[in-house]
Amino acid sequence: MANPLFYDRIVPLDSAEHRKLRLRQLAAPYAFAARANLIPALTAEFGAAAPSMPIAFLPGAEKPAAVFVTGFKPDQNVFVTGEGRWNGEYVPAYLRRYPFIMGDVPGGQPILCVDANAAALGEEGVKLFSREGKPEPALTQALQLADDYRVGAQRTDEFCIALQRLKLFRSVTLDAKQPDGQSTVVHGLLVVDEQVLDGLAAADLEELHRQRWLRPIYAHLLSLGSLSRLSEKLKSS
Known about the structure:
Structural class: alpha+beta
Low-confidence stretches: none
Strand content: 15-25%
Mean pLDDT: 92
Radius of gyration: 19 Å
Number of strands: 11
Largest sheet: 3 strands, antiparallel
Strand order of the largest sheet: 1-7-6
Number of helices: 7
């Protein structure tokens, strides 16, 4: 299978093999995301991110995937500056988790893995393991974030499956104004159809409420109004 977005060589983190591995602060910490106009999103993030970036859904073979729209076209992320820094009010958890990720083990518990080719990893910086091979605070924090993301991703998958089952998605073309006044059209995305949402049966609405999925739905719809923020970011870059 292809590696997840941004990950090049995923390996299990091992206290013996990676005893000397360290995590360092980069001058350009988000340069790795500079060419990503779509970044995976979690429902738990919708509320915090909605005011600053659009949230949409990318069609998939089995289910749609929630994404943050961070650029008008492929290879463009208006939230990453030329210096590789994040220029936005909210940083997606997918980016904050990198270069760590949880790996599935058949019949066992997920384990923490890392992108061995990540620029932030080397022999300088904050220790991940103590001399005795015990997790240092930086590694404990990375594990917590990666595992929280794993749980949140499962919940987001359930959310997308439910919305697809209720036929709440519609294809959309997002129109945005470029700094030069030209219009840019973003194709191939899905959004929640408000008319279908308003017409749902009471039992379906009750189910969405019980699952606490109404809030992320409305946060997603609210976020579509922040499309103009992408133009503002492009102007200031």
